[in-house]
Each structure stands twice: as structure tokens, then as C-alpha cells.
Write a structure and sequence with these properties.
Layout (H helix, E strand, L loop, with lengths): L37 H4 L14 E3 L9 E8 L2 E8 L2 E8 L7 E3 L7 E8 L2 E16 L14 E10 L5 E3 L21 E11 L4 E14 L3 H7 L15 H11 L18 E4 L12 E8 L2 E5 L3 H4 L3 H6 L4 H8 L17 E6 L6
Antiparallel strand pairs: 1-11, 2-3, 2-6, 3-4, 4-5, 6-7, 7-8, 8-9, 8-10, 10-11, 12-15, 13-14, 13-15
Length: 362
């Protein structure tokens, strides 16, 4: 399947679920080797974002790929300069009411509005993203390179609405489907997004094309963008104690979306069972987890491939997505990656993906 053709799957830009006026887990036992159950960390991501219209914004008001730009940031009549640093939003006052806070961060961001503009052939349209609430409860799934405890990830409940519309909706429409309340690893709250600056992501090719801290990404819970940050594979996660290159971050994006061919095609669906591990020891699999190697991964996709995840654990969604079989889809788009050798001849990859065993039938 071509990723950008999959409405509701891999490349349905960010998380806006509101029609615009002009357009009519689990990674393993990563956070704590034996404490992250499958319903928190044991699933792959068939969605890059969450079915909306954009996945990134520029702090200087440059237009993103979908035509949206940030115009202003305000709260209660005061105006602020927006910043995103180390995956956290803050705002410094530029013009405001006497007595208003000069700096906003954490829970004080509640009520802040980001005004967006989109220019089209039909006119210029304005939208507001309002930060409804802020949480600081989400755990990283990966372990720090230095072995120290990881900090919490700040997340935001965002409301999206056109300025001339009476109807709005949460920017993120998911987040509760795979939550396990009994897990000590805290998942992202429902309707929440995380943000991370720096990584320039091409949604058409599922690639990390560069780095610029003036751009930030919005990742809704249970999407590939969120899982990049949750697994420490972003530019913004480096100060939190993770260490990986742009190439390795692209490798993670290819793996989590099952882009075996490496050209922006996703061969999975959301919620597919999967485990993964890395060569740095930040993402490990508990000894008692039974598994079978699915693939080795590099920045250009799978370097070898055994049983694709949707064959190992078929679901109604995966069978509907790949009516002719996933192998036929893979063969259509690229030369099939060779099987992974059990002899260990292949070079050690940055990432390995694993199918939990026993395999299931649908």
C-alpha cells in the first residue's frame, strides 16, 4: 500500500479531526524491563499521525507542507512568543495586560491559543488550537543510555476550531484504545499529544530529512510520531538521556510503520502486535517474552525480512487492507528483502523487530 494513499493509516497528516472551512506497543519492556505490558508498549503504529491535516508547525510563521502557518500565540488578551524546547511548549510575553504572567509553561499553558492561517484559492481561513490542559505523567518506553531514570514526557490536550465555525473537536481523536490501567508504565492520556522539535519528517516517504529546531512535530497518542518520542528516537529526546543519529531515527520510523521497501509504503495497520529492540540497549525485551525475528532495519527499510507482522498476527483490519496478501503488495513495490539468516552473517542492525509467539490466526 502506498502510504499516502491510506486514509486513516500511515500518512493522514496530524491529528485534526475537524473539517476545514476551505476543504468543505509497545516497544518491549523498555521503560522498565519487566514492567511494560503489551497493551501499553507492544503494538506498532499504522498511523503516522491521527487522520488530520498537518503534522508540523514552524515557530517563525513559515508555511508548512499543507499550507498552514502560525500567526500568533495568546492567552486572555496577552500575546506571547511560542517556543518548543526539549519536547516542551513555553511562551514568553511580547505584549500584554498589566499583571498577566510574562512566561507560560506547564499547567499555566492551559487556555493558550495558537492562531493558524491557511491561504487557499477560495480565500484565507483562520483556526485556533487551544491548549485545554497539560499533563506530566507519561513515561518513556525506552531506557536512558546512561541508565539513569527517565524524566516524564509533557503532553497536551488540544482543541481545534475554525474561527468562523461553531464546531470544534479535540485535535487528537485517540489515545484510549490500548491503555492498560494496571501498568506501572504510564501511557499518554486520551486526546493528548506530545510535541518534539528539530526533526524534519517527510510524510510521503516516511523519512527524517533533516534537523531544524524552529520546526516542531505534533504526535497524538498511539501514532508513529508519538512513538518516535516515547522511544527516545527524536532530536528533542537527546537532552533527556538518549543518543541516536538522524539515520537511526529514520530507521525507527521505517520499522514502526513497516516500511519494508523504504520508499514510504506502510505494510501494517494500527494496533498490530510487535516487539522491537535496538543495538544500544535502550529498548530490550524481557527474557520471558517468546518471539520470532521479523526483520532487521536500516534507514532505507528492512535489510532482511522473515514473516511480516500482519501474517504472524492477522486481524480484520489487516486482512481488509491487504486483500491480495501482503507479500504480493511488497513484491509490487520493491524487490523482496532476503530472509534474515539465523547464522548471524548479517551485520548487526540498529533495530530488530520481533513477532510475539505463538502466531495467531484470524
Amino acid at each position: 500500500m502506498k502510504a499516502f494513499q491510506l486514509l486513516g493509516l500511515v500518512l493522514t497528516l496530524t491529528s485534526c479531526a475537524v473539517p476545514t472551512e476551505d476543504e468543505g506497543t509497545e516497544s518491549v519492556e523498555q521503560a522498565a524491563t519487566s514492567k511494560c505490558p503489551p497493551r501499553v508498549c507492544g503494538l506498532n503504529a499504522g498511523e503516522l499521525t491521527n487522520g488530520g491535516f498537518f503534522h508540523s508547525l514552524n515557530l517563525d510563521g513559515l508555511v508548512n507542507d499543507e499550507g498552514y502557518s502560525l500567526v500568533s500565540t495568546s492567552k486572555n488578551g496577552s500575546y506571547y512568543k511560542l517556543a518548543v524546547t526539549n519536547g516542551k511548549i513555553s511562551a514568553s510575553m511580547t505584549m500584554g495586560i498589566v499583571g498577566a504572567p510574562t512566561y507560560l509553561s506547564g499547567s499555566n499553558l492551559a487556555g493558550t491559543k495558537l492562531r493558524l492561517k491557511k491561504v487557499t484559492a477560495n480565500g484565507t481561513f483562520y483556526y485556533n488550537i487551544t491548549i485545554s490542559s497539560v499533563a506530566n505523567t507519561t513515561d518513556y518506553w525506552a531506557k536512558r543510555t546512561n541508565g539513569l531514570p527517565t524524566p516524564k514526557i509533557e503532553t497536551y490536550k488540544l482543541w481545534f476550531q475554525g474561527e468562523s465555525s461553531q464546531i470544534g473537536a479535540f485535535l487528537c481523536q485517540n489515545g484510549a484504545e490500548f491503555v492498560d490501567p494496571s501498568s506501572p508504565v504510564r501511557a499518554m492520556p486520551e486526546h493528548h499529544a506530545l510535541v518534539f522539535e528539530g526533526d524534519l519528517i517527510d510524510v510521503a516517504t516516511l523519512s527524517v530529512t533533516g534537523s531544524n529546531p524552529r520546526w516542531f512535530n505534533i504526535g497524538c497518542a498511539e501514532t508513529a510520531l508519538a512513538k518516535m518520542q516515547l522511544n527516545g528516537h527524536t532530536y528533542a529526546a537527546q537532552p533527556a538521556g538518549f543518543s541516536n543519529t538522524q539515520s537511526e531515527r529514520q530507521t525507527f520510523l521505517k520499522m514502526i510503520t513497516a516500511d519494508y521497501c523504504g520508499i514510504g509504503n506502510s505494510f501494517t495497520v494500527s494496533g498490530q502486535k510487535l516487539r522491537w529492540s535496538d543495538d544500544d540497549g535502550t529498548m530490550t525485551i524481557a527474557w520471558y517474552i517468546t518471539k520470532e525475528l521479523e526483520a532487521h532495519w536500516g534507514p532505507n527499510g528492512a535489510t532482511c525480512l522473515n514473516t511480516p507482522r500482519v501474517i504472524a498476527h492477522p486481524t480484520d483490519a489487516s486482512e481488509a487492507a491487504f486483500e491480495n496478501g501482503v507479500w504480493m503488495e511488497i513484491d509490487h513495490w520493491c524487490q523482496r528483502p532476503p530472509p534474515c539468516s539465523s547464522s548471524g552473517i548479517q551485520a548487526i542492525p540498529h533495530l530488530k523487530s520481533w513477532n510475539p509467539t505463538p502466531f495467531t490466526t484470524n
